[in-house]
Amino acid sequence: MEINTSELCDLYADRIDVVEPVFTNYGGAFSYAGEISTIKCFEDRGLVDKVLATNGIGKVLLIDGGGSTRRALVDAENVQLAVENGWEGIVCYGAVRDVDLLEEFDIGIHAINSIPVAADSREIGDLDIAVNFAGVTFLPEDFIYADGTGIILSPEPLDIEMDD
Known about the structure:
- Helix 3 links the parallel strand 5 and strand 6 (89-96).
- This protein has helices at residues 5-11, 46-52, 76-84, 99-102; strands spanning 17-18, 24-25, 32-40, 59-64, 72-74, 89-96, 108-114, 126-127, 131-133, 136-138, 143-146, 151-154.
- By secondary structure, the chain is of the alpha/beta class.
- The chain starts with a helix and ends in a 10-residue tail after the last strand.
- Strands 1, 2, 3, 4, 5, 6, 7, 8, 11 and 12 form a ten-stranded mixed β-sheet that branches.
- It has one domain (5-12, 23-154): Glucose Oxidase, domain 1 (3-Layer(bba) Sandwich), CATH 3.50.30.
- 16% of the residues lie in helices and 32% in strands.
- The protein is globular and about 40 Å long.
């Protein structure tokens, strides 16, 4: 599915929120969209691993890692889980690692930075709660649309069947 956030902003300016441009794209898919599931955790990837091991068809995992870049919440191991379970993408307000491997996976991944140090895996955090970062409040079951230009959020699915 090809997403063009610039066109979506033009068409749906009154229905969307635009996420501040603090993210870098690390995945092999340059655009992606889906209904979000949220995790709030800090330097602990246990819940990330647990959720990515579940069915993610049509979904994007949104991780509020508190903006920490001291420990990576996303790496090749849990991205492999995500791909196997059909996740469309991952937005991580935190860090990733295994950057060279991540771009080989057919999944969208946005994060604020990379670091080689892995996060703990104790499953400490909260699932499916409202989180706020990058100028936007994300609610479970909102819809996210992302490409190389940016990330937008909508409370309802947008019609992305665009004319070529």
